[in-house]
Amino acid sequence: MTAINAVTDYTLDGDVGVITLNSPPVNALSRGVLEGIAFGMQAAVADPGAKAIVLICEGRTFIAGADIGGLGSRREERPIDPMGELERSPKPVIAAIHGTALGGGLEAALCCNYRVAVPSARCGLPEVNLGLLPGAGGTQRLPRLVGPQKALEMMTSGMHVPARQCLEMGVVDELVEEGKLREGAIAFARKVLAENRPLRKVRDISEKVEAARGHPEIFAEFRKANARKFRGFMAPEWNIRCIEAAVNQPFDEGIKTEQKLFRELLAGEQSAAQRYAFFAERQANKIPDVPDDTPLIPVNSVGIIGAGTMGGGIAMNFANAGIPVTIVEVKQDALDRGLGVIRKNYERTASRGGITAADVEKRMGLITGSLDMNALAPVDMVIEAVFERMDIKKDIFSKLDAICKPGAILATNTSALNIDEIASVTKRPEAVIGLHFFSPANVMKLLEVVRADHTSKPVIATSMKLAKKIGKVAALVGVCPGFVGNRILGQRQREAQKLMFEGAMPWDIDRVMYDFGFPMGPFAMSDLAGLDIGWVKENSRGETIRDALCELDRRGQKTGAGYYDYDENRVAHPSPVTEKIIQDFVARSGVNARTITDEEILERCLYPMVNEGAKILEEGMAIRASDIDVIWENGYGWPVYRGGPMWWGDQIGLDKVLAGMKKLQAQMGDLYKPAALLEKMVAEGKNFTRV
Ligand SMILES: NC(=O)c1ccc[n+]([C@@H]2O[C@H](COP(=O)([O-])OP(=O)(O)OC[C@H]3O[C@@H](n4cnc5c(N)ncnc54)[C@H](O)[C@@H]3O)[C@@H](O)[C@H]2O)c1
After folding, report:
1. Inter-residue contact 289 to 620 (CB < 8 Å)
2. Which residue among the candidates 87, 127, 384, 633 is catalytic per the annotation?
3. pTM, whole model, 2 decimals?
4. Is the CB–ligand 1 distance for residue 55 below 6 Å?
5. Residue-averaged pLDDT of the chain
6. Residue 257 has what DSSP assignment?
7. Which residues pair with 385 in a beta bridge?
8. Quick check: 411 pLDDT over 70?
9. Which of 85, 87, 107, 281 is catalytic?
């Protein structure tokens, strides 16, 4: 065995040279790994005993991507060409894949003559999710191997394709037995030698791209079918252009196109925001005073109280992860209804091919209903999701305190109630925590984990870990009205309402928010949720626009009208009825309606959000600015290519945000008082997210 460098070995196994990379945790393409490939290849090519070469990785995976942290930084080391060394080899090179071959890892494998993989392996080019494209030839090689259609799907989704599918598509040439990758790859290499197979290079394969030449409709149709999904993002389109180049240009020209488009994305604001978001999510799991070695509480069973909108969705998360759930309700019909909704949701997923019919039964089998809270005695964690009323929650928590075993975690899904007050009725406030799921709870990624005054570190650490296990993105927040997400949302909602009284129409405000990149504006959102949430007919005196709309039975999408009129396809149209109601309100208030520009709408809605984020940080209700951004991207549809409110504030300039807040304060009072932290940041020339 020869050590090529600190992370690479070379050995000769009979007539096959084997280059082994070992750079934990994921053999990412660091400088060491790149040099290992380049120098390992030189050694193998120079070794007269080696007739073929295998590239394999130690540890849990093949090369699982580039070293993202190093992206964009300047490299001054001497130039090497690992991809070229692989591709130009005079001896057949076989990539041996286990775990995941992602991004630069798959691109390296595509420079080899052949690829073998174990059945559990997956391959993908996920650069698009960082606002990038594969910039090491992957955009030109993949379409040559699998054709443009499959390349479009893979590269614009970033999906990790299972080995069997890779075999069918031609990304992988042969599957080898699980656990016997090295032997399998060497045997494959010997087969290539014995059969005297030609030194096929992916760059020279042309049938599939040639067949697509002169068929621009392939791309036009793909763009059209995915327009909604790609809206606002640059990277999917830039990936598509590379694949068009693979079809229409010779290989070397295509590589130049790839390089040019890659540089554009790398230098752009979107990728910077998307890379920031990627690291922000990871960072959110780090709690400064809760070290990584904090003991965890095993959670092998969960109890949920309330089978309503939230309880049912929360239960599904756990059943999906294989954790048994007991749901407690007050009445049989509520329980039956709740369980029925869960089943219907699963069956809908199954009918779309997301899961099998057997999965439906397996998951339903993990969910047990009960009308007796004593059924929660043995569970490791309880999540309460009953009506948002302090008296009911307190009653439940005092009962839970008596029923649940010592050490059980007692969580509440409250949206706004004081969790310290809820915890105060128990003799174990250290076990009480907020787990704020978002609706629909089985779909939305975000989980706000709410730390109360006495919540213990193991309870926090366990909740953060568990969030990951059930596929959520968690951020730790403190107890304050609305916690972090809704507290900031409150700012935008208030401004949207106020703007309406100053002369902007709901559809103008919604359009500005939609064009900014939100999936929908605040009024479309209200119509979707229903305007009558919390509205009581008997108490309604037509005092608000909402009252007036609900009194006309315009309660949102479900009644065919709300702020908007809806046609039979549920498409929203600006409503003359709503417009008249608003105009009457404005006239009665004595305010002169004015023309409000899109720019003003944007600033009025978003600056107060950044300002509120600063207050949240000041009060220590979020650990770091990037946690606020994680919350807004995963729970409220803030476009990831704009990084989140705090990142966005930094991008446009905190001095601008501060000046905007001061102007509003001068016009409309201290509701708009700039946060002290915002003033301080500007005075010190600092920003929130790139300190
Ligand atoms: N709906 C949302 O968008 C949303 C989002 C986040 C958090 N929340 C919070 O989640 C909680 C539940 O909200 P929801 O929308 O699911 O309400 P919901 O009205 O749909 O469901 C509440 C359920 O709790 C049951 N219930 C009431 N008292 C009970 C008791 N003593 N024991 C057992 N079951 C009882 C009711 O029968 C009902 O089925 C609230 O605290 C709410 O603030 C709601």
Report:
1. no
2. 127
3. 0.94
4. no
5. 96
6. H
7. none
8. yes
9. 107
pLDDT tens profile 202-213: 999 999 999 999
Ordered DSSP codes for 602-664 = HHHHHHHHHHHHHHHHHTTSBSSHHHHHHHHHHHS---GGG--HHHHHHHH-HHHHHHHHHHH
Give the rounded percent of residues in the chain with a pLDDT score beyond 90: 95
- From residue 141, alpha-carbon distances to 35, 158, 206 in Å are 22, 16, 10
Residue 342 alpha carbon to ligand 1 centre in Å: 15
Taking 90 as the threshold, does the pLDDT of residue 72 lie above it?
A: no
For residue 656, count other CB atoms closer than 10 A to its CB: 13
Mutation test of ligand 1: which of 415, 421, 436, 472 has the most ligand atoms closer than 8 Å to its C-beta? 415
pLDDT digits (tens, 9 = 90+) for 19-31: 999 999 999 999 9
Q: Which atom of ligand 1 is nearest to the CA of 388?
A: 41
Q: How confident is the model at residue 71 (pLDDT cuts 50, 70, 90)?
A: low
Would you list the domain boundaries of the chain?
2-267, 302-479, 505-589, 598-684
For residues 543-563, average pLDDT: 94
What's the 570 CA to ligand 1 centre distance in angstroms? 28
**Domain 2-267 of CATH type 3.90.226.10:** yes
* Pair type for strands 432-437 and 446-451: antiparallel
Class of domain 505-589: mainly alpha
Please work out whether the CB of residue 387 comes within 6 Å of at least one atom of ligand 1: yes
Same fold: 2-267 with 598-684? no
CATH superfamily of 598-684: N-(1-d-carboxylethyl)-l-norvaline Dehydrogenase; domain 2 (1.10.1040.10)
- Does the pLDDT of residue 75 top 60, yes or no? no
Percentage of the chain exceeding pLDDT 70: 98
Say yes or no: CB of residue 392 within 6 Å of ligand 1.
Answer: yes
Q: Is 361 a catalytic residue?
A: no
Burial class (CB in 10 A: 0-12, 13-18, 19+), 268: middle
Q: Which of 649, 633, 631, 657 is CA-nearest to residue 688?
A: 649
Nearest CA to ligand 1 atom 25: 306
Contact between 499 and 585 (Cβ < 8 Å): no
Residue 167 has pLDDT above 70, yes or no: yes
Test site for ligand 1: of 310, 389, 412, most ligand atoms within 8 A of the Cβ: 310
Q: How far is the CA of 510 from the centre of ligand 1 (A)?
A: 29
Could you tell me the distance, in angstroms and rounded to a whole number, from the CA of residue 307 to the centre of ligand 1? 7
Split at pLDDT 50, 70, 90, the class of 690 is confident
Q: Does domain 302-479 have CATH number 3.40.50.720?
A: yes
107 is catalytic: yes
